[in-house]
Amino acid sequence: MDAALFAVDRDGRVTHWNQEAERLLGWSAREALGRRGLGGWVVRETDAADVQDRLLAVTGDTPAGGSPRQVQEFPFVTKDGSRLLVRAQTAAVRDAAGRVAGAYCAFSDVHAQLDLERRIALSEALLAGSAWSVLLVDADLRTVALNEAATRALAVSPVEMLGEPLAEFLGSGLPELEGALEHALAGEPPAEPVELWVTLHEDGSVEDAHGESRGGLPGGRRRCWLSGFLPLGSPLATEPSPLGVAWVFRDVTLERRQSREATRRRFRDGQLNRAARAAADCADPMDAAVVHLDFALAGFAEHALLDLVPSARPGARAARTPAAPPPPAAPGAG
Fold it and tell me: Can you give the residue ranges of the PAC domain (predicted)?
């Protein structure tokens, strides 16, 4: 963000006026240089005395006095008559002998400044206390910052990740992740959050004295992350200049595994229901058993073997369901 700047001498006469001041206020340097006072053109006449006193306060020549560098807000007026509230930094200007010769005022639109401050505050909040994991990579896809939630999700410390490529920590699923990051760098991030299944090289577990793994991420190293990608550009640059990508993600591994298991159970229940109905239509018990297996095992097994139990006598049953009740106790026992 380029700062607009002008300077005045101790009498309030404009001595410097840069192009950004011309862009914001509409007055060219030719129109501004040499004018004494700001009233009637840069500020309203009713505000002129107050603005000039505060502007020249850094010189020590006004009753207001003050430090040699101040930050304050001024109600300026553009050439077309629009009001423009600016945030300005004023400081004393000294001549070659070191004497105070006037004051300069570097200013910008207060709304643009507030927007920049909000962006900075948002970045700090995301990296400090966000419940979502946030990881920033540069244009070379190396980690430059991550928050505490991301360190837990990746089972690493910030020191281990900073400056390192993601390949040092992720196995399968890395090409898909890097592809999404590269699209975001090119200004074409995924329009919707995407689910990425990746495998971590480490899950944070340690071996105890018996050689068993303790701790680590619940569910192991295979993770599912619901991810969004935000390209980062410099708000200070006049032309697009990619700084990197913010990868915002949340671990949904347990939810997705539970959903898959629930879907699997529903499919199996439906197949068993269809198997029972199909088997009931078969006259031959062997055909019924085969049809039942064809339906019941679909999606779970490709082949099934059915062993026949030889009967000791005609009509003998190998099993009974429900189980036969126990014989009654003999009378007079006990």
Answer: 70-122
